[in-house]
Every structure is written in structure tokens, then in C-alpha cells.
Request: fold
Amino acid sequence: MSLPGNTALLTGGMLAALLVLALLSAGIGAYHIPFGDVLASVQARLGLGGTPLDRVGESVLWNVRLPRVVLALLVGSSLGCAGALMQGVFGNPLAEPGVIGISSGAAVGAVASIALGLTFFGNWTVTVCAFVAGLVTVLLVYALSRSGGRTEVVTLILTGIAVNAFAGALIGLFIFFADSAQISQITFWQLGSLAQATWPKVLAVLPCALAGLAVAPFSAGKLDLLALGERPARHLGVDVERLRVVLVLVVALLTAAAVAVAGIITFVGLLVPHLLRMAHGPGHRFLVPGSALGGALVLVAGDLAARTVAAPAELPLGVLTALFGSPFFFWLLRRTRRGQGGWA
Reply:
């Protein structure tokens, strides 16, 4: 069990690192803005003193850099929190929205709305389609991976493989019938990127992300009881099936919001909860909000790396997270297999 001091130290460390990385990310780029000037401009906008930048600097900072930083915070926190919830709901350390196909399913909804030219909800059409497709996918995965009242790990992963393959085929089909402009938009979803971040996109994802992040911590105590097993949790007063349905909806909301604006970004929801579990312990009262904070930290750092490692070119963020997340997933599979003495 972790000590309160460790919780405060870890939370404070992540908050400080996130603040520094966010300010660095706002200043670093083709148009360099010194760290102090970023702070001065933010202070000036907040009416706390400071000095505004020149016209070009203000435009770059407030119309290009900061929307991207805020979007990285929202998408990262959504994916990190969704991963922690999903692992708690399934009682499985390998569950993650991307690994079991929810991100791909949500991307199919987003891609379909682009390829078919759907506009029935205006600017919200892509988000709504991604949410509906993500919800259908998570319910399908949940139903197929349950057997005898428990979730089987191998069935869960194999179902995810099948769902990812089917989603890839559907996306390929939409690309086949799409025109050139639609293909460029669809490519955005497949690679995962924050390059097209704008304030309207931030506002589009903000309600879904805030709603999901606000609801998630209230389930932490019940997830701790569920970790004891379904039967003990029921005896302790937890309505297990109701808890699962509510949290599955929250996961779909968080994942769909992230995918709708950033495309497919995998492994954040797998990697962050595990690192925090190793550093702090399995308690969900810290793990759920901590994973949201850690996810934001990882994605801000990842986006900064994607913009600067191969400058002036930009690496796709989804490719970068998969590049580092895949070896971690492989290590996790091996570790879990050794712990269980094999899958069979």
C-alpha cells in the first residue's frame, strides 16, 4: 500500500513536469518563442501582468501552439483514464481501447462520416459517429470476450485482433470509394496527429472529455472492490453489471472524443496505468485520476517529440506512440504469461 506522501510526491512531480512540458511545447518550433515570453504572454491574457508578444508571436502562440497543447492535454488524459477504467472493468491488465479495437471502431465511424459526407449534426457529426461506432465496438468486444461470467484474456486479445482487422478493412473500403480530398482527411485518422488542432476542435472534444473525466473518479472505490472478484464485490454491495455498463459508456465517450479529433493513437491507455501501478500500487482512487494526468503528460511529450525529432518534417503521433508502446506490450504479455504459468 502506498503512503499519502508518495501519492502527493508522484502527483506533484507529474503536475510540475506537465507544466514545464506544456510551456516548452508552446515555445519550441519553427518560430521560437522563449520560455519567459510564453509565460509573459499568458500572464498578459489572464490580466496578471506580463507583456504581450509582437503580432506574429501572438498569432503563432495563441492560434497554432496553444490549441495543440490543450488538445494534447485533453486527448492524453482521455486515453489514459479510459485505459485505467477498462483494465479495472475487465479485471485484466492487457485491456486498452486501442489493443482491443475500440479506437479502430471509433475511427471507422469518423471515417465513414467523412467518406459519406454526413453532416446531420453539423460540426459534431464526426464526434457523434465516432462515439456511436466506438460504443458498438466496445459492447461487441465485451459480449464476445465473456464466458461463464468472466472475461478471458486470450479471447479478449483475439477479439481485438479480429475487430482491428475488420475495422481496417472497412476503412480501406471507404478509401477506395473516397475522392482525393476525403482520402487526405481519412489518412489523418489512420496515422494519428494533432497537427490540425484549432480552438473549435478543442471545444468539440472538451464536453465529452470533461464529462468522462468528471464521472470516472466516482467509480474508483467500486473498482477496488471489483478487483477482489465479482462475487465478493456483489456481497459488498456493488451492482457489478450496472457498474460495467456505466463504465463501458464512459470509456466509449472518452475514446471517441479522442479519436474524433486526433485519429488512432494507441498504447497510451495501456502504458500509463501500468507505469503508475508499478510506481504507486493498484488502488483506483489514485490510478484513475493519476492515469488521466499521466496520459496528458505522455501525449504532450510525444507531440513535442513528433514535431521536433525530424524537423522540419513532422512524425505522425500515432506512429510514435505505437513505436514505443508495442515493445512495452510485448514485455507485458511475456510478464503476464510467466505470472500465470502460460495461457493454456
Notes: The longest strand covers residues 146-147.
